[in-house]
Amino acid sequence: MKKAEIILRERFEDKKVILLGAGVSNLPLAEFIASFGAKVEIRDKKTREELGETAEVLEKTGATLVLGESYLDNMEADYIFRSPGFRPDLPALKKAVEKGAELTMEMEMFMELRPAYTVGITGSDGKSTTTTLVYEMLKRAHGGDKVYLGGNIGFPLLHRVCEMDESCFASVELSSFQLMTIDTPADVAVITNISPNHLNWHTDMQEYIDAKAKLLLGAKRAVLNFGCEITRELGKALECPVFYFSKDPIPESALLDKDCSICFEGDDIVFFEKKTGKKEKIMERGDILLPGLHNAENYMTAAAALYGTVGFEDVKAVAKVFGGVKHRFELVAIKNGAYFYNSSIDSSPTRTAAALSAVKDKKINLICGGYDKNIPFEPLAVAIAEAGNVKSVTVTGATADKILAAIDGCGIFDKEKITVVRKNDFEEAVKHAASMAEDGEAVLLSPACASFDAFRNFEERGERFREIVSAL
Description:
The chain is of the alpha/beta class. Helices cover 34% and strands 21% of the residues. The longest helix has 16 residues, at 127-142.
């Protein structure tokens, strides 16, 4: 019996465990915990009618359901697993902890127990693609049987921890919601960048930064964006080696002896080790199938994270064939000569700016707007104005007025060159953007916002975009 299995048996046998959130994503966790003899209770604000068949599926695990508006009342348990959307300082959770419950998360417990060499990846933008690239490179170098993908993407990992050993690898995407309470360090900690995001959930920007920075504590290596002032400053205080990446040159004088860099030299992506002065070419920009400078940076990030674990030949091999992650700058159709791109994952202005930079050879008809995370949209207006090839902007969703206000207040935005239209319905917005597109132009869904005003998640939004485009 492996160490993790012994610990889990000791923790859960004959114990009461509450899971917050009755989504299907909690099904593997419920089954896993119950397999160690725990009495599982699942709580959710939704009614049984709203859950539909999901309620029956969850109950088949042996779990008891507590549903409805009072679902957080009278929580007494040995363990409470919160879903990422629940703040750990909710009064009901604090009260339960005072009564003796241990508050945790699926990823928090996985990070504590996992024997696998783990690359933890967070950031405001690019973390899903980078996490997937790390996974693909590890698979190519070490075989698929020993490599795991999880966290915010892939599959839940705690229920697979018992099959892992020290020869395994895990590529894990971590959100600020999760990192607020994760104290176990990753072997390699990656922060792709930090820009305003999720400020409807975090108390302020500093709490958001602090949550991201927790990933760095105790890591054996940090991988940070030199071009982002926040992450660059975080790197200065670290004792572990820091691998900086950037689309722009990184001055040798900015590195400490323990540090390394990966950046462009002309069209070459080059690795540099300060201590030894060693310099190696990883690949050329043209080797990367995915368009855009931001994707070149994603490859720099992944190469830095895996230096010494994966050879540059494997990095280059993946770059030549990897076509991207679904809903992330995904070409879904070419209709009447127009190119339709689904980048529904773009939930912040900086992410939309990156998407715009990836389309340089076509005029762009942009669709943006969605759920309000209380982040500023002035950077979005500037990015649209500075792109130079945006033909039209169709705004929709709960943030439409805020985006329009940011555009109105942007001194460099030329409304005579860029048509701006508001549509209250998502389908109307897609159809209008499509009607604006002429032969050789692009229709780009890059919302700069989350999806929760109209959809369950960005995947559902992306699939709806695909359906509307298909029916045009």
